[in-house]
Amino acid sequence: MNISTTKKELQSAFNKLSKTTQLKSQNPLINYTYISSSASGVVLHSTDLEVGIKTQITASINSPGEGLFPTSEMNDIINVIEDGRVDIDISGPHINIKSEKGISFDIATIPLQDYPTIPENKHELIFPIKSDELKELIDQVIYIIKVDPTKPALSGACFSFKEKQIDVVSTDGHRLIKISNQNKTNINGSFIIPKKFLIILNAFLQDTDEVNVIFSGDHVFCNNAKDVFYSKIIDEKFPNYDAVIPSENPNKLILDKTDMSAALKAASIAVNKNTNQISLNFGEGKVFIKSINQSDNKTVHAPLKSAKYNGDECIIGFNLQYLKDAVSKYPEEKLIINFKNESSAVLLQPESKNINITSLIMPVRINE
Q: How much of the chain exceeds pLDDT 70, in percent?
């Protein structure tokens, strides 16, 4: 195989492809990038056997063929060569890379017969969505996802397609977020998309206006004119999230998001770093956040002056970080917190009918 391209083309491609590289892996093929040149163009592909990226580059093809690049070495070479033309020749176990100014690199490669094939996209179930909407969905749910080999079902976001509604849900067992929209597709079923793929996809969405998320077999695909991103779907049963969301939370606290954020920031000064615990204190005409660190003899009492509450007195313990995350992602300035008592799940739900987001946080036992 012999092709001519440019540093800019290679740099753009390997910036994407390197996202699947794993420095520590028992399979050496993971750290190689596949290249193929033919009448249909030059294609590069990398995978960690779970997530994969395929991209095309603009190049002149002097002779067709295929081979494998050691990904990290190619990145190093691309970073040191000057801008301009780059000639690449793959012959047997060697690769020669020559820059326009004559700098030449000879590196070894390995046989490609064992390189994993790219899964076939049969375009079976297509979910069209605007890029900014998908990016917002990912931003809302990804921060909760915790990759845990012992709980694989929770290592991704669940895209649940029902007859009239699409739910996108993530949970770590202590908190949950659900975003619902109208289902305008013919898809019916649930698919757990891994966190790593969502991270890669989120970066890719900055460069495109609209995408199709395609579920085909046991993989999910997303592509544009030059790139294909794909991942295995997590083959696990996602928890019954509707069963843990309370249908009735009679008590309601209304306040300003800015006020709440400032109080949480103040409370963090005295929070115990081991428990990360604070309390939200409710009463007629008084609502405040309190944090205590007995070992350092610190206490913070932060009143929520914008609060509107008319229920019984109640004290609910929270993990500070969980509550901060939920408030920071809350889509409106008017913050609404619904709860039943100090031991039941707490919900943050906007009143706007145009924003169907439910954020759930489980309370913690207060240890003062």
A: 98
Q: What contacts 255, CB < 8 A, 6 or more positions away? A: 287, 304, 306, 307, 308, 335, 337
Tokens 């995350």 sit at which residue? 325
State the pLDDT at residue 209: 81
Asked if 239 and 205 touch (Cβ cutoff 8 Å), the reply is no
Q: Rounded to whole angstroms, how far apart are CA atoms 18 and 221?
A: 18
pLDDT in tens, 309-324: 988 899 999 999 999 9
**Ordered domains of the chain (ranges, CATH):** 2-108 (3.10.150.10), 125-243 (3.10.150.10), 247-361 (3.10.150.10)
| Amino acid present at 264 | L
Q: How large is the greatest C-alpha to C-alpha distance in the chain, in angstroms?
A: 80
Backbone φ and ψ of 272, nearest 5°: -75, 120
Sheet of 286-293: strand order equals 298-303, 286-293, 277-283, 314-319
At 246-259, the pLDDT tens digits run 988 999 999 999 99
pLDDT in tens, 296-307: 889 999 999 999
**What are the phi and psi torsion angles at 3 (to 5°)?**
-135, 160
For CA atoms 309, 315, 319, 320, give the dihedral sign: positive
Residue positions counted in the chain: 368
Per DSSP bridges, beta strands 2-6 and 251-256 are unpaired
Residue 358 confidence class, pLDDT cut points 50, 70, 90: very high
Cα 110 from Cα 93, distance rounded (Å):
6
Closest to 52 measured CA to CA, from 76, 82, 30, 27? 30
Classify strands 125-130 and 210-216 as parallel, antiparallel or unpaired.
antiparallel
The secondary structure of 333-367 as a DSSP string is SEEEEEESSTTS-EEE--S-TT--EEEEE--B---
